[in-house]
Write a structure and sequence with these properties.
Radius of gyration: 38 Å
Strand order of the largest sheet: 1-2
Strand content: 5-15%
Structural class: mainly alpha
Number of strands: 2
Distance between the termini: 70 Å
Order of helices and strands: HEEHHHH
Length: about 130
């Protein structure tokens, strides 16, 4: 992309030089509502209009991209907020972990785990002969 933009820039410079060399005659420029006439070389008028067109195109492109820049800023701030929250949660988990590695669940925790497994997979907890097809 960088090579393409440089090539186009050189092409526009070459076109500007060719226009300047070819059109040295003077042109009268009258802007209708304003009084007076401006006399400028034709190449200067053409180059000024080309420059105005390029600047207008850049301004429109920048304005069209504002939605994407706004969305990127919001996504960056959301990512930073989530990173802070993750660091806070990791700190909280590190504080809560027990020091002994082989801690077994208590009897009430063991019963709760059995109840949850029975709720998740009730067909595994029932006897094999009592299925809907038997």
């Amino acid at each position: 992309m960088k090579i393409l933009s440089r090539a186009l820039f050189l092409l526009f410079i070459l076109a500007g030089v060719l226009i300047a060399v070819s059109n040295t005659q003077l042109v009268q420029l009258a802007l209708w509502p304003l009084p007076g006439i401006v006399i400028v070389p034709a190449y200067l008028l053409v180059v000024a209009l080309l420059l105005a067109g390029v600047l207008a195109g850049l301004a429109l492109g920048w304005r069209a991209g504002r939605h994407h820049r706004r969305r990127a800023r919001k996504a960056a701030s959301e990512a930073a907020r989530l990173e802070r929250e993750l660091a806070r949660l990791r700190g909280g988990i590190a504080e809560r972990t027990p020091t002994a590695a082989g801690v077994s669940p208590t009897s009430s925790e063991h019963k709760a785990i059995e109840r949850q497994s029975a709720l998740v997979a009730p067909d595994l907890a029932s006897p094999a002969g009592r299925g809907p097809l038997s």
